[in-house]
Amino acid sequence: MINPLIEQAQKVLAATTPSDEDLLHARSELASFLEALSTGRMSAKVDIDDLEEAERLMRELNREISRRQAGMPSGPTPQPTTTQPKTSAEMPATPLEDTTPSPVTEPASPQTPSAPPPDFSQILQSDSLGGLDSDPLKRFFQSAHDPEAERLMDQAEEAFYKGNYQVAIPLYEKVIQMEPSWVRAQEHHAEAEEYLRSGNIPSVALPPEAGKAYGKAQSAARVFRYQIALNYLQDAFDHLEDAGIKRWREGEDLRADLENQMQAYDVYKEGLNLLSLGDLQAALGKIQTAASAVAIPEYIDKANETRADISAINEISDVVSMSGKIPPVMLAESKGKLERIRMKYGEIEQISRLRTRLDLMIPATIQNLLDNTRRLKQEAADAPTANLAKQKVAGARENLDLLRQLDAYDADSLALEDEISRLETEIHSNLDAITRAKETFETGNKFFAMDSWKISRGARKRFPQDPEVLELKRNYLPSYAVAILALLVIGAILITGLTIGIRRISADITARNLAKTPTVTNTPTITLTPTLTLTPEPTITPTPYVSPTPTLTPSPTPFAYVRAMYDLYVRSDCYANFNSVGRVPRGTVLTLLPMPEQRFDTFRRECVLVEFRNEGYAIIGYLLVQDLEPVTD
Amino acid sequence: MREEILDSNTSYYLAEALDTWFSVGHRDVAVPEAAGSSARVFLLKHASKPLPWRQNPAFKVMRHDKIAYAMPLFREEFKILSQLKDMDAITPMLLGGYLKPAPGTSWPEELAPTSKVLELQGGGQNIKGTLAIFEPDEVDDILQQFDERVQDGWLPFLILERRWEDNLYMLCDAGYTRGNFIQNLSMKQVLDIAIQICEILEKAHAQGTVFLDHKLLHYYWNETRQKVIILDWNIGRWMGDDMAPEIIRDDLLQFSARALHHLFTGQQAPGAAVVGGNRPEDIANSPIQYKAQYSFDVQNRLNKDEMAFLEKALEGAFSSASEMKAQLMVLAAKR
After folding, report:
1. Distance CA B144, CA B142 (A)
2. What is the interface pTM, i.e. ipTM, of the complex?
3. Do residues A116 and A60 lie in contact, with contact meaning Cβ atoms separated by under 8 Å?
4. Chain A interface mutation, best of B115, B183, B264, highest count of A Cβ atoms under 10 Å
5. Which residue of chain A is at minimal alpha-carbon distance from B47?
6. CA-to-CA distance for B6 and A592, rounded, in angstroms?
């Protein structure tokens, strides 16, 4: 849809001498289309390349129309205009003429334009700036001011923004005369006058050349190139003077500041020179003066540094002048400070004197330090708590450091340090053991903390009074209780077992003893004979007088005798599987004892119960029948 | 290479002067600062046929009275445009070559063509001579013949795509906007423009080129495409692989002081090389740091982050265009 319009515009512009009507028609149609498009009154899709081309052609058309409308320059040799673009109101009411040159045309001399086509003027009146109301700059430039006032205002504004206030002020005044209510003219007029009167011209309002030189001056000043900065500043003042500006406060301030800076810099350099000569006090005075004048951090820092060094020297002097025993710490510190100052300023007299005095005082202090270190080491070794041990070790180490600072670090000190290191390692191991024991206790069984107890065994022994050890010990109380209880139970079990064993043994012994005293009990055995003596029952019958006869009657039957055919062992039962209770030699005559039933061994051999009596003892037990022979006598 | 006649009767000819005015909106404004110190620019036309481009191109020719000064600048521009021919945000060289003006040629005055008469008086229709025309891929030949031809009276020229878009100087400079930021670009657009310029610089730096001449006159704003286009690389330098970080930092500092400060505040940073015909030494002797200046209106326009960014840029704190672009994108995202 836009393409025909584009082609039409291209055709008109490509023509050697397009007519005004063609130009206006092409522009009008293109402008209407673009306006409809931009305001959303038309929803046609337009390719961006076409839109761009349409926009470009619109400008070409506007340009051609505008140039035709602008007519002739005012003079025979027109000057390049440096003013703002002219508004429609400002443009002379010259008619549009076709001045488009043919390529071969020589530049036309200024001519009075012919009468404009009426339709063009009417169109221009209705749309003097190209017909695109959406153009913000066009709207901006549109104005209801008097054309001459506006022209002057343009010139004034241009001069104002270039910092040429001397030129701008009278132009503003003319504008205000013509249009007293033009607020912007009044404001800028007042502002320009204020700049010239007070000299308070902001950097952005400086004439460009002056602003440029001023910027360079500031940059040079920032890198301490003051002379160059002053030169640039002078350039800036020269440019201002060319622009008719006599006062410029910011520049004057900068100039005063630069001069001040240069003077301060000189004084500062003098101070540095005095420092290199070793005259610290005088140098401080100079540097302090420079720092007070310009408050540059570098100067202030240097002054503070020098003051600190002087103060350090004074402190060292106080130390070497002290009476009595000087603390080794103080001596070592003084020696360090003095060395630092000597490295900084070299061998100056005051420092050399102090150094000599310090060197004289050091040997006596060294011996004390060594003794003290040994004592601390011993105390650390005996310390009942880890903290105390650590404190003592730290004290010993401090002493070693002091010895080092005093340049008295010999073989003794080295050996001592080695011992202290070992001690320290041991302390740390124990502390580590305590920590691990605590951790183990926390994570393990609290009523039977055997692992924790084992881990902390050495540490508990080494630091018995250490709070952490004491805490551990408290923690182990339940474990101890459990252990004691267990011991008690075990003890009870043992005692019970023992008792039972003893009783059993005792019973066995009793039984055996009982077994061993059959003579006593044999009596009843013998009384068993009453079975046999049942026959004497008739003796019960009160026939005492007939007693001799019945007594003899049963006597042969109860007793029988056998003889051992070999040396034999009498056993407690029948036969070899049982314990031997005695030994009878071959040929011994044994008494057969009565048995309630027959007894056989595992081989079905018959045993008999026999008694062997000898002097003071008797053996009762079983023998195999096959090993015996009857005694006939 | 081919030779053509420059004659407004029969062949190619130079029409209106293009280096004395600019477009903004739908208006043309005479801008004296537009004239360069080493070249003149005219519209190139043909007397009898349309030229092979969509619109008539610009013809940038070395000033006949500044040959010694302008020679290295033209040589450098040939090199750079040949190197950056694939970048779409730069104004491309369509053709290059040499013009040998006919004896007795008088060059026109620098007049803005605000009327048809001035257009004729400031145009180059009367310039006649011979053109030795080279294609863009024959830049090596141009450079090879450079000294010999210049000694022989030839003036180097470049035929460039003609810029028709709005010039950023017109859209931003307080002298033209009267310090009023409501009428022109929004801050969002300003940040977008700055980001696009950083992208152009990033690519140029990557190819061993620095722009250096960062006045806003050299940037155009295509409203339709919302795109920045850059031209005039003759103050720039082609460094190849010898691009030192300091040179990149200096290029970014120039961009900050002359273009970025101008975009943000309507004025260049105090102390920056003024808008107008700048010589390379103007830029080389520029301060190494700048200080931002804000008028009352600008303080209302910029937020604290934007001011902090501008001040940081003016201190030369950025060492790469990508770093600068990243921060600008953060600022744009906050708008």
Report:
1. 5
2. 0.89
3. no
4. B115
5. A103
6. 172
DSSP reduced 3-state for A600: strand
Class of the B2-160 domain? alpha beta
Which tens digits make up the pLDDT trace of A451-488?
899 999 899 988 988 898 999 889 889 999 999 999 99
Q: Which of A208-212, A274-278, B193-197 has the lowest mean pLDDT?
A: A208-212
- Rg, chain B, Cα only: 20
Please tell me the distance from the alpha carbon of residue A483 to that of residue A486, in angstroms, as a whole number: 5
pLDDT tens string B110-150: 888 888 888 999 999 999 999 999 999 999 999 999 999 99
Chain A interface includes B284 (CB < 8 A): no
Task: Enumerate residues 289 to 318 of chain B having a beta carbon within 8 A of any beta carbon in chain A.
Answer: 289-291, 293-295
Residue type, B222: N
**Superfamily name and number for B166-334:** Transferase(Phosphotransferase) domain 1 (1.10.510.10)
Six-digit token string for A81: 């205009």
Q: Does residue A558 form part of some domain?
A: yes
3-state helix/strand/coil string of chain B: CEEEEECCCCCEEEEEECCCEEEECCEEEECHHHCCCCEEEEEEEECCCCCCCCCCCEEEEECCCCHHHHHHHHHHHHHHHHHCCCCCCECCEEEEEEEEECCCCCCCCCCCCCCHHHHHHHCCCCCCEEEEEECHHHHHHHHHHHHHHHHCCCEEEEEECCCCCEEHHHHHCHHHHCCCCCCCCCHHHHHHHHHHHHHHHHHHHHCCEECCCCCHHHEEEECCCCEEEECCCCCCEECCCCCCHHHHHHHHHHHHHHHHHHHHHCCCCCCCCCCCCCCHHHHHCCCCCCCCCCCHHHHHHCCHHHHHHHHHHHCCCCCCHHHHHHHHHHHHHHC
Q: Give the one of B29, B112, B291 whose C-beta lies nearest to A218's C-beta.
A: B291
Quote the number of domains for chain A: 2
Q: Residue B212 region, left (φ>0) first, then alpha (ψ -120 to 50), else beta?
A: left
Q: Which of A272-281, A441-450, B181-190, B294-303 has the lowest mean pLDDT?
A: B181-190
Within a domain: A167: no
- Is residue A576 assigned to a domain? yes
For residue B120, the chain A residues in CB contact (below 8 A) are: 99, 101, 105, 107-108
| Contact assessment for residue A251 and residue A233, using Cβ atoms and an 8 Å cutoff | yes
Domain ranges (residues) in chain B: 2-160, 166-334
Q: Is the pLDDT of residue A551 over 70?
A: no
pTM for the full predicted model: 0.48
Nearest-by-Cβ selection for A85 from B29, B119, B180:
B29
What is the SS3 assignment for A585?
coil
Residue A290 host element (H or E): helix A280-294
Cβ-nearest to B115 among A73, A141, A223: A73
Output the six-digit token pair for A321. Answer: 């002048």
* Chain-chain contact of B112 with A80 (C-beta, under 8 angstroms): yes
d(CA B269, CA B292): 6
What is the span of the domain harbouring residue A571?
527-536+551-630
Question: What is the torsional sign of CA B307, B309, B310, B314?
Answer: positive
Q: Is residue A40 part of a domain?
A: yes
